[in-house]
Amino acid sequence: MKQLDVCLTPDLLHLHKMDNCIVVVADVFRATSCMVTGLAYGVKSITPVATIEECKFLQDKGFFAAAERDARKVEGFDLDNSPFSFMDEKLIGAEVAMTTTNGTLSIAKAKASAVKVMVGSFLNLGALAQHLRSEPYDVLVLCAGWKGRPNLEDTLYAGALAEALKDQYMLLEDGTLMAQRLYNQSRDNLLGSVSNSSHVRRLQRLGIQKDISYCLQTDLYDVVPVLRGGALVAMN
């Protein structure tokens, strides 16, 4: 039987087996929610890069560029890290370059060893789970966390995906069971469950409560982003 494992932070990735494995990267607040939203609204591709310099290079080549550090937009770039920015009609059919504090760095760490890298959020939970049921590979959910530390919202997402796939995948490791149990205790009030979390407090100080509520909605979209040739595209 296939196995599903959870890595609570990219700093622990070296402890996890990644051969024969699809890595699902989750950065719920807000990178992977932006990626899912952008592709759902017609963005052609999103190229995740680890550094601001790489993002600027692609911007100079004609990409729309989204850059975020410490939850704030980096000066000189086109887009911030709010999913609402990715709903703009001017982005339909566009190529977007993106760098964020945690999410794109997690993708960069995963892509060297994974069979595939896919992107998950609550917004596409059901669609991604449905696709993974058809895959022959193990799954590792990589929580982006915050600067090497675990965070609540990504762990809750990992637990939600584990709960959705528990009949098709063995859940063996304690990190996975912790995430699953945390989600099951919180599933009826996700917003309340994260209300005092560190990143929610960080975002609230910036006045973007609407992003928090939006990113915790389940199954808004059926798009499944997959990394192909260095760019995230919607799986057909």
UniProtKB/TrEMBL annotation:
Cofactor dependency: Mg(2+)
Database matches in SUPFAM superfamilies: ComB-like
Catalytic activity: (2R)-O-phospho-3-sulfolactate + H2O = (2R)-3-sulfolactate + phosphate
Gene assigned in the entry: comB
Pfam families found in the cross-reference section: 2-ph_phosp
Coiled coil location: none
Xref: InterPro entries: ComB-like (IPR005238), ComB-like_sf (IPR036702)
Stored PANTHER family: 2-PHOSPHOSULFOLACTATE PHOSPHATASE-RELATED
UniProt entry keywords in alphabetical sequence: Hydrolase, Magnesium
Family designation: Belongs to the ComB family.
Name the record gives this protein: Probable 2-phosphosulfolactate phosphatase
